[in-house]
Every structure is written in structure tokens, then in C-alpha cells.
Write a structure and sequence with these properties.
Elements (H helix, E strand, L loop, with lengths): L6 H12 L2 H10 L2 H18 L1 H4 L20 E4 L2 E15 L6 E12 L1 E11 L3 E9 L18 H37 L1 H16 L2 H10 L7 H31 L3 H8 L4 H9 L4 H24 L11 H4 L6 H6 L5 H23 L6
Antiparallel strand pairs: 1-2, 2-3, 4-5
Helix pairs in contact: 2-14, 3-5, 3-14, 5-6, 5-8, 5-11, 6-8, 7-8, 8-11, 9-10, 11-14
Length: 373
């Protein structure tokens, strides 16, 4: 007796072969659990960058000179008087170490400060649009909330990391966008026109890829004028990071164009009189859009690491601009790291961001082949 198929399964099977490429990619991506969770992490990082003023307990340049190199404060629920319904922190009391005379901080259990939501604190202008003093977390006046400790000037490290994420994460986006434009256009021209144009472009790519990346980035960053404003330096670093990133994408696009330009639909477009730019933009490039999306996703971590490395070495972004790489400059001193290990916390955010982008890229790479297993 013939086996009957459930109507729901039959409809699902028919829908599988009638759905668009993007719909198939979306379904396949949702089945990749690690990629989905990593995508949520990436989304959370960018939301933190967008709303960093509101999420930060303090303003970017708020200094607490009486709490220099204060360690991270712990949240408590149980105090000397029993269980509290709201998390709280103890006050900090600075003392001198009897042997090293180094200032150390201990919890003063006689002072309890509940952590409040939508607390009032330092005044800031949200995206330069309006002025407010509402922060997501805060404590009453007289208390401190240093969840990740402070730096050499008594500035809250968590607040500076949140502010720095806006620069570090957007450098990657702008740099990838520029490399996308360069790589897509130059690779398409190289693959479609061929001949001496292809030879010149490929030799240029080989020359650029023959240079070690970090020394070349350092040389280009050092060439930026010292009197540039922070905004000019920001865009200068973005251009430097995208200067080499386009070469890999250009070669991939060239190979795909070489394979697709002889297809029947490309020949038909030529016969009906379509121009070469139109054939490349409307017929050839959309044939491997999913691969381009995956390549761009995997390029973002390299941009973030590039900015962090240059800024850490003092050749990238410089104060007063705040980025994860700039914050890590204080970790260059081994003695400071040994005494204040929380100064390495920005590196944790860099690692989490890079891993999340890589996992998302892996999920997109699998989803780009929706009919594969």
C-alpha cells in the first residue's frame, strides 16, 4: 500500500522549493542555535553603543579622584540586617597598605546604598538632541557604583567601555562598508572586462597583499597629521582599515564573475542590448549575494581587531576619543595590570564581539546553502 504524506508535511515540502533564496536562508539560519544566540549578543552590543549615555552609570569624563584604581564593587542581597529585596552596594573606604603603602579599598558595611533603576546622576546630552540626567542604574548621592572598577583618574570603567563601544563597533561598520564598495566594484570590473584591466588590478592586489598588515597599518596611521581633530582621526583610521580589506573580497568577486559571465542569462542580456554595467549590477552580482553577505560578516571582526591593535599601540585613535583600544592603553604597564587586573576588562568585550561575529558568520555561511544538510 502506498504511503501517504501528511498534508502539512507536503505543504512544507512544496513551500521549500517555492520560497525565495532569502526566505530559505532565514529558515536555515534560525536552526543554527549558536549563530542565533551570537546574533543576539551582537544586537545587544550595538544597542549598548546606541544608548551608552543612558546605560552608563556615569558620564564619560566624570572623575572620582578619591577612588583612583578602585576595584569592582560587588552587588549584595544579604546585609547585616538580613535579606534585601533590592540589590545594594557598600560604601568604599580607602586605607593604606601597611607594607607597600599602596592605597587599597575595603567595603564599609556601615554604609548601604541600594541600586536604583532610572536614577538621577550626571547630566548628559543624548545624541546631542536633548539634555537629561536619567541613568539606567545608579545609587543615592554619597555612594558609588563601580561595577567594573575605575582607572588611573578615578573614571568608571563600565561607563567608558560602553562609550568606547560606539567607536569600536562603528569603525568596523564603516570600514566594512568602504571595503564592500571597493571590493565589489573593482572585483566586478576585473572579472568581467578581463584582459589588461584584469592584469593590472590583480598585480595591484598582489602587491598590497604582500605587505604585512600590521606594519602597513602602523605606517599609514603614523602618516596621519598630529593636528587633526578627533573626528578626522576617526575617519582616517576607518579609511586605513579598509585600505587592505577590499582585496580579498575583490578576488572572490572576480572569480564568481568569471564563472557567471558565460551563463545563458548573461549572454541573453548582451543580445538584447544591455550595457556592461547593467549586466554586472542586475544579473551577475545578485547571483552570489549570499556569499557577499557572509564575507562581510566575517570581515567585521578583523576591522574591530585592527582598530583595537592600532589604538593599543598608540598609532590609532587617541584621547579624548574613547574606544576599546584606547582603554587598553593603560594595560600596557605590566605592573598596573598585576595590581589592577580589571583594566583588562575591555579586552573581554573585544573577545566577545569577535567571537559573536564569527559565529554569526558561520551560521550565515551554512544558511547560504539552504538545500545542504
Amino acid at each position: 500500500m502506498a504511503r501517504t504524506m501528511d498534508p502539512a508535511q507536503e505543504a512544507s515540502g512544496e513551500d521549500l522549493y517555492t520560497a525565495s533564496q532569502w526566505e530559505l536562508m532565514r529558515r536555515k539560519f534560525r536552526k543554527h542555535g549558536l549563530a542565533v544566540w551570537s546574533g543576539m549578543v551582537v544586537l545587544a552590543l550595538y544597542l549598548g553603543a546606541v544608548f551608552c549615555e543612558f546605560l552608563s552609570p556615569y558620564a564619560l569624563e566624570d572623575q572620582h579622584l578619591e577612588y583612583i584604581y578602585a576595584p569592582p564593587q560587588r552587588l549584595h542581597l544579604i546585609g547585616p540586617d538580613g535579606l534585601h529585596l533590592r540589590p545594594f552596594v557598600y560604601g568604599l573606604k580607602g586605607t593604606r597598605h601597611p607594607e607597600t603603602l599602596r592605597k587599597v579599598y575595603v567595603e564599609d558595611e556601615s554604609r548601604i546604598y541600594p541600586v536604583r533603576l532610572f536614577a538621577r546622576g550626571s547630566t548628559y546630552r543624548f545624541w546631542g538632541l536633548f539634555e537629561t540626567d536619567i541613568h539606567l542604574l545608579g545609587v543615592d548621592r554619597g555612594g558609588t557604583l563601580f561595577l567594573l572598577g575605575t582607572d588611573s583618574l578615578g573614571r568608571d570603567l563600565l561607563s567608558r567601555i560602553l562609550y568606547g563601544s560606539r567607536i569600536s563597533l562603528t569603525v568596523g561598520l564603516i570600514g566594512v562598508a568602504l571595503s564592500f564598495v571597493f571590493g565589489l566594484s573593482i572585483g566586478a570590473v576585473s572579472g568581467y572586462y578581463g584582459g589588461w584591466i584584469d592584469n593590472i588590478i590583480q598585480r595591484l592586489i598582489e602587491i598590497l597583499r604582500s605587505f604585512p598588515s600590521i606594519p602597513l597599518w602602523m605606517a599609514l596611521s603614523a602618516a596621519l597629521p598630529a593636528d587633526w581633530s578627533p573626528l578626522q582621526i576617526y575617519f582616517g583610521i576607518t579609511v586605513v582599515l579598509s585600505f587592505l580589506a577590499w582585496t580579498g573580497l575583490a578576488r572572490v568577486v572576480r572569480g564568481k564573475i568569471l564563472a557567471l559571465r558565460e551563463e545563458d542569462y548573461a549572454t541573453a542580456a548582451i543580445l538584447i542590448g544591455a550595457s556592461k554595467p547593467r549586466i554586472m549590477a542586475r544579473h551577475l552580482l545578485p547571483g552570489f549575494t549570499s556569499h557577499i553577505v557572509v564575507s562581510l560578516t566575517l570581515a567585521l571582526p578583523g576591522m574591530i581587531l585592527g582598530e583595537t591593535s592600532l589604538s593599543f599601540l598608540g598609532l590609532g585613535l587617541r584621547p579624548p576619543i574613547t574606544s576599546w583600544g584606547v582603554l587598553l592603553q593603560e594595560a600596557q604597564n605590566v605592573q598596573a595590570v598585576a595590581m589592577q587586573p580589571w583594566l583588562l576588562t575591555p579586552a573581554v568585550f573585544v573577545v566577545v564581539a569577535v567571537l559573536a561575529f564569527n559565529f554569526v558568520g558561520d551560521g550565515l555561511r551554512d544558511a547560504a546553502d539552504p538545500y545542504g544538510r
